[in-house]
Design goal:
2 copies of one chain form a homodimer.
Chain A lengths: L11 H9 L3 H11 L4 H8 L3 H13 L3 E7 L4 E6 L1 H20 L8 E5 L4 E3 L1 E5 L11 E5 L19
Antiparallel strand pairs in A: 1-2, 3-4
């Protein structure tokens, strides 16, 4: 597949998308998270080609988002599961699922709900401030130069900003 | 551009990706959020083709994520800005940026940082539980049938789950 790499852009959103931004990738992570852990199961559920799935799984293993172990020897078959990096990525996807529930769900309501085992409630993910704990609204947040800022694509505005 | 639509999948993550999952879209939203609001500015910063940018902007307007107003008459030129739906999408992207800062940043550190005007601190987005406020960790959260669940692609597992 020909595509521009975003991995060299000095932006963590771009770099995240370079790993996780392609459509199937988040859905594969979702499937492994909720228990579809074998190649055949994922393929049947998502209805993507075996070739594309094999390709995406290879990337997810190489990126350390998934790990696998054999569950059968002849022929060898693997089960996939999320690494800590993968589990944190799924956590970020909860925020995107909540946005989808709010803005894209049908009249019937959200197709899936999340149960938080810690509190026992039906919940959704909220994006809150790591410092004050309030919702981190886009209109109350601004960007500043980080320590890893550098001149380049996707950084035109950031490079002119003062450090915070 | 030929691609399978995910919009008919009974999954809010899939539906979100159908709108926002394609690489350039989140970066365009990011640019408009931090102040690159004109076509030329976005195009120059991200280094994508005019054709692709025009196409993505059209989708973002149609989806109600961006809105625009003219800032010049001859010829007509527009400034883009985020709608409430777009601002909430940006908020979800803060979670993905935080993941990228943690797992993909270079040794120098994150290229950009977020300042929360509400509390005045350098912060990052955390995905927390809408009910108890604790971090919504993937390993402490499980999925259940929602009111909009239905049989179909991407729902194989969910359709067999009990309602919560």
């Amino acid at each position: 597949m020909q595509r521009t790499s975003l991995g060299d852009m000095a932006c963590s959103l771009a770099r995240s998308l370079d790993v996780a931004g392609e459509w199937w990738t988040p859905l594969i992570v979702r499937n492994v998270w909720f228990g579809a852990r074998r190649f055949e199961e994922i393929q049947r559920d998502l209805g993507l080609s075996r070739k594309v799935l094999a390709d995406r799984l290879r990337t997810l293993l190489a990126e350390g988002i998934l790990e696998r172990r054999p569950y059968q020897e002849h022929p060898v078959r693997h089960k996939y599961r999320l690494t800590p990096k993968g589990r944190e990525l799924m956590q970020a996807f909860f925020a995107l699922m909540a946005w989808g529930d709010r803005w894209t769900a049908e009249v019937a309501g959200p197709p899936m709900v999340l149960c938080h085992e810690r509190c026992g409630e039906i919940v959704h993910g909220e994006v809150t401030c790591s410092s004050c704990g309030e919702p981190l609204r886009a209109e109350e947040t601004r960007i500043a130069r980080g320590p890893g800022a550098r001149v380049g694509r996707g950084s035109r505005y950031v490079e002119h900003l003062p450090a915070p």
